[in-house]
Write a structure and sequence with these properties.
mainly alpha; Growth Hormone, Chain: A; 2 domains; globular
């Protein structure tokens, strides 16, 4: 029981510090753009390397976890992030930065799958919902990252030194938690018990075409696409369609993020009392109502309430899916999480392009309304579709 407590606390710390470290990249983007003196098109292409690194690494992470255990993958990924992040800020060549962003993205993708898999193991061992609070701590870290960067740069540190400070902190905290994270043998025992098979039997029967895995992956694709839509398009929408000053255009995403982080911190109790199925169904309805307000409300206050509702409704949908992935019968959790994580991240990457296409041919409000419909479809589909041994 004491080992479980240590593993649970270590997992929470890893989620928090990773959220902080990864989100610290966002405020660094303008510095990279100014240093290279590139336009938005070249910057967009450059940023694509980060996402490509993540999405290529994610499917491989499940295999690495099975071979070495999650704590080894978490530690190595943290080292990759800690080394590559400041180097990105030190380099001055577009191609060199692109290559280093690919490596940085590989670390981000790998640690994302590894810590979610470890969280699923801890949750299965404790037989108590913790996934929502883990994602809540990641969101809190994500909110703190840009603030920490801003404070350090305001204090006179260069972007590269600031990145170095954050990287050293990430690595130091990860290493101090290493011994508290579950070892490989413990994870194999938990995984075998949760899928009602030995690990060897599970590997033989697992297929990437497993229906339950693909279903959850498709749902994650939509959920991540919706979150990405708010991240990438909310400021543009408020400025161009609601007349909000560009200096305040980020208030929509801020409202969404705070609501999501708060709901995730309380999400475990909600899931325990109502069940994951109801969280997905009612959450999708609440989020859809939020999109309706955002698109059609004539007053800014009502629009911001809409962004809050999107955050409240969508907050615990993804944690429920990751929990479900860790409990699919005959499927090792490391492989299930890596597949649905990859599909989800693909949605986050594809989202801006898909919505941009819809906005170009119709309008941005139409694109956001379609996003709301997609989120609603998660609840409808989850109600209709029955997956055995997933809830």
């Amino acid at each position: 029981m004491n080992n479980l407590k240590h593993a649970k606390n270590a997992t929470k710390i890893i989620f928090l510090v990773c959220g902080l470290a990864i989100s610290s990249w966002a405020p660094m983007v303008p510095f990279v753009k100014d240093k290279l003196r590139i336009n938005d098109g070249s910057l967009g292409l450059l940023l694509l390397f980060l996402g490509t690194g993540a999405i290529i690494t994610m499917p491989l992470t499940g295999w690495l976890i099975h071979k070495t255990g999650t704590r080894i993958v978490i530690t190595v990924s943290a080292i990759v992030i800690a080394v590559s992040f400041p180097i990105v800020l030190w380099l001055n060549n577009w191609f060199e930065i692109a290559g280093m962003l690919f490596i940085f993205g590989s670390g981000v993708g790998s640690i994302d799958i590894a810590m979610n898999t470890h969280g699923a193991h801890v949750q299965n061992m404790a037989d108590k919902h913790i996934m929502s609070s883990l994602h809540g701590l990641f969101s809190v870290g994500g909110l703190c990252g840009p603030i920490v960067v801003g404070v350090l740069i305001k204090a006179g540190l260069s972007p590269a030194i600031t990145a170095g400070v954050i990287s050293v902190s990430l690595l130091a905290i990860t290493l101090t938690q290493f011994s508290s994270l579950m070892d490989q043998n413990t994870e194999h025992e938990i995984s075998a018990k949760s899928i009602n098979l030995t690990e060897t039997e599970g590997n033989k029967k697992f297929s990437l075409l497993n229906g339950a895995v693909l279903f959850l992956g498709a749902m994650c694709f939509i959920a991540f696409l919706s979150e990405g839509a708010v991240l990438d398009w909310s400021a543009v929408f408020l400025r161009d369609n609601k007349g909000v000053d560009k200096a305040m255009a980020g208030i929509g995403y801020a409202s969404f993020s705070i609501a999501m982080a708060t709901m995730r911190l309380f999400g475990d109790k909600i899931v325990s009392k109502t069940g994951g199925k109801h969280v997905v169904i009612y959450g999708s309805i609440i989020a859809f109502a939020g999109f309706i307000l955002v698109v059609f409300a004539p007053w800014l206050f009502a629009v911001l309430i809409g962004f809050v509702l999107i955050g409240v409704g969508a907050a615990n949908i993804v944690p429920v899916f990751f929990t479900a992935a860790g409990r699919i019968k005959n499927v090792p959790s490391s492989k299930a999480v890596s597949v649905i994580g990859t599909m989800g991240y693909a949605g986050q990457l594809a989202g801006p392009a898909i919505l941009g296409f819809i906005a170009h041919h119709f309008s941005l409000p139409t694109a956001l309304f379609v996003t709301g419909l997609l989120l609603l479809s998660i609840g409808v589909t989850y109600q209709v579709k029955s997956i055995r041994n997933v809830q």
